[in-house]
């Protein structure tokens, strides 16, 4: 396919730019629901009588569990009924759960509501990817995914500060009020402006046999599966950093007070990487950029590992190499996501749900493993980085081949 392929035009009053912004807003629904909660965890526990700080953290994984599992449901639904209907249902569940969370007085109920909220948000994640695949193909699809990914990586910069700001005028309930309001705005936007992008001939019957066949198509495509596995491995490396980063900056480098600034700096580099990829992908192609970015990520990981083993890893070097990794990480995931989706246009919803599930669940498990072996040094994280890069490179090379690097 050519770089400018757009098999399904964006119809109605929704132009290309508005389409991109709307898809990015769907992604932000989920991103804000995670990152905006970070400043409020302690206040939530104190307000609802939960004294155990470890149990207070359940507000986050409960959401992620619902988000990961229900992607497997919304994918086949969107392939059967189109994108608009399941998307509106999922966003509605998200908003209703946020409203109930706003008024709850029981911590266990809040955890359950977060699971339900994440379940609804799964629709926005799956269908955002399917929408892009419906409308664009080839390098153009990777360019759009890069722009969307840029918005996603801006959320760790904006959301915690927004959450802290909301809590200066309200208590933690204001966080859920914001989420419900934002979700309602996106629902209205989708209802009035988004056309149906799934063509009638691509609709699949919703039966157990058809669903199994749809997932079979995804798992039988070696190229797509290779990139999905690669995304899961690299997402696991990222989760390993997120799980142990605060301890690293506190225990290894002694700069705990500046941790939010370092975290925001890494997120800014990821956003920059998305913008760079969007500018370069049409010229150099998804595969070439993916391999180059993966090589840079691996080289930075090896440098961190060697320097840590030699006890010669100052803060400036660790942060500089981490910034480079964050920059190329967004390039890798944008291109891998597009490469995984490109052969699966006839089951885009199921493919997106499989991609999201395999990235979220195994990736989170890898991240937990990396985080749990933290030993007061950067070595476990660096070993995890190197291992996941090696797994990704081997998997993509053996299952997908280098392919034509220009495309």
From TrEMBL:
<feature type="transmembrane region" description="Helical">
    <location>
        <begin position="144"/>
        <end position="163"/>
    </location>
</feature>
<dbReference type="GO" id="GO:1990961">
    <property type="term" value="P:xenobiotic detoxification by transmembrane export across the plasma membrane"/>
</dbReference>
<keyword id="KW-1003">Cell membrane</keyword>
<keyword id="KW-1133">Transmembrane helix</keyword>
<dbReference type="InterPro" id="IPR011701">
    <property type="entry name" value="MFS"/>
</dbReference>
<keyword id="KW-0472">Membrane</keyword>
<dbReference type="GO" id="GO:0005886">
    <property type="term" value="C:plasma membrane"/>
</dbReference>
<keyword id="KW-0812">Transmembrane</keyword>
<dbReference type="InterPro" id="IPR004812">
    <property type="entry name" value="Efflux_drug-R_Bcr/CmlA"/>
</dbReference>
<feature type="transmembrane region" description="Helical">
    <location>
        <begin position="20"/>
        <end position="38"/>
    </location>
</feature>
<dbReference type="Pfam" id="PF07690">
    <property type="entry name" value="MFS_1"/>
</dbReference>
<feature type="transmembrane region" description="Helical">
    <location>
        <begin position="380"/>
        <end position="400"/>
    </location>
</feature>
<feature type="transmembrane region" description="Helical">
    <location>
        <begin position="257"/>
        <end position="276"/>
    </location>
</feature>
<feature type="transmembrane region" description="Helical">
    <location>
        <begin position="357"/>
        <end position="374"/>
    </location>
</feature>
<feature type="transmembrane region" description="Helical">
    <location>
        <begin position="316"/>
        <end position="336"/>
    </location>
</feature>
<feature type="transmembrane region" description="Helical">
    <location>
        <begin position="87"/>
        <end position="105"/>
    </location>
</feature>
<feature type="transmembrane region" description="Helical">
    <location>
        <begin position="111"/>
        <end position="132"/>
    </location>
</feature>
<comment type="similarity">
    <text>Belongs to the major facilitator superfamily. Bcr/CmlA family.</text>
</comment>
<dbReference type="GO" id="GO:0042910">
    <property type="term" value="F:xenobiotic transmembrane transporter activity"/>
</dbReference>
<feature type="domain" description="Major facilitator superfamily (MFS) profile">
    <location>
        <begin position="19"/>
        <end position="404"/>
    </location>
</feature>
<feature type="transmembrane region" description="Helical">
    <location>
        <begin position="175"/>
        <end position="194"/>
    </location>
</feature>
<dbReference type="InterPro" id="IPR036259">
    <property type="entry name" value="MFS_trans_sf"/>
</dbReference>
<feature type="transmembrane region" description="Helical">
    <location>
        <begin position="288"/>
        <end position="310"/>
    </location>
</feature>
<feature type="transmembrane region" description="Helical">
    <location>
        <begin position="58"/>
        <end position="75"/>
    </location>
</feature>
<keyword id="KW-0813">Transport</keyword>
<protein>
    <recommendedName>
        <fullName>Bcr/CflA family efflux transporter</fullName>
    </recommendedName>
</protein>
<keyword id="KW-0997">Cell inner membrane</keyword>
<dbReference type="InterPro" id="IPR020846">
    <property type="entry name" value="MFS_dom"/>
</dbReference>
<feature type="transmembrane region" description="Helical">
    <location>
        <begin position="215"/>
        <end position="237"/>
    </location>
</feature>
């Amino acid at each position: 396919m050519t770089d400018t392929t757009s098999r399904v035009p964006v119809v109605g009053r929704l132009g290309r730019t508005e389409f991109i912004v709307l898809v990015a807003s769907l992604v932000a629904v989920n991103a804000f629901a995670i990152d905006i909660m970070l400043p409020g965890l302690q206040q939530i526990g104190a307000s609802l009588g939960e004294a155990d700080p470890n149990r207070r953290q359940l507000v986050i994984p409960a959401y992620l569990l619902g988000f990961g599992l229900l992607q497997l449901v919304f994918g086949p639904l969107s392939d059967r009924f189109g994108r608009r209907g399941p998307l509106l249902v999922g966003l509605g569940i998200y908003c209703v759960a946020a409203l109930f969370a706003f008024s709850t007085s029981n911590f266990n109920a809040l955890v359950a509501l977060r699971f339900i909220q994440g379940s609804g948000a799964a629709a926005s994640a799956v269908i955002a990817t399917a929408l892009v695949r419906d409308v664009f193909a080839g390098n153009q699809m990777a360019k759009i995914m890069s722009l969307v990914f840029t918005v996603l990586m801006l959320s760790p910069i904006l959301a915690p500060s927004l959450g802290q700001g909301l809590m200066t005028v309200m208590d933690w309930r204001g966080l859920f009020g914001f989420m419900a309001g934002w979700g309602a705005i996106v629902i209205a936007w989708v209802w009035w402006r988004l056309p149906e992008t799934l063509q009638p001939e691509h609709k699949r019957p919703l039966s157990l046999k058809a669903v199994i066949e749809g997932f079979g198509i995804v798992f039988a495509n070696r190229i797509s599966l290779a990139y999905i596995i690669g995304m899961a491995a690299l997402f696991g490396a990222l989760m390993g950093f997120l799980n142990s980063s605060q301890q690293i900056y506190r225990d290894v480098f002694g700069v705990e007070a500046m941790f939010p600034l370092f975290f925001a700096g890494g997120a800014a580099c990821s956003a920059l990487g998305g913008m760079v990829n969007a500018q370069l992908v049409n010229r150099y192609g998804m595969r070439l950029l993916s391999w180059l970015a993966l090589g840079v990520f691996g080289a930075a990981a090896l440098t961190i590992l060697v320097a840590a083993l030699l006890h010669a890893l100052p803060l400036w070097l660790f942060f500089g190499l981490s910034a480079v990794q964050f920059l190329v990480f967004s390039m890798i995931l944008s291109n891998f996501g597009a490469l995984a989706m490109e052969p699966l246009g006839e089951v885009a919803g199921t493919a997106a749900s499989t991609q999201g599930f395999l990235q979220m669940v195994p990736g989170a498990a890898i991240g937990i493993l990396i985080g749990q072996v933290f030993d007061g040094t950067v070595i476990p994280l660096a070993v995890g980085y190197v291992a996941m890069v090696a797994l990704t490179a081997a998997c993509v090379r053996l299952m997908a081949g280098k392919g034509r690097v220009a495309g």
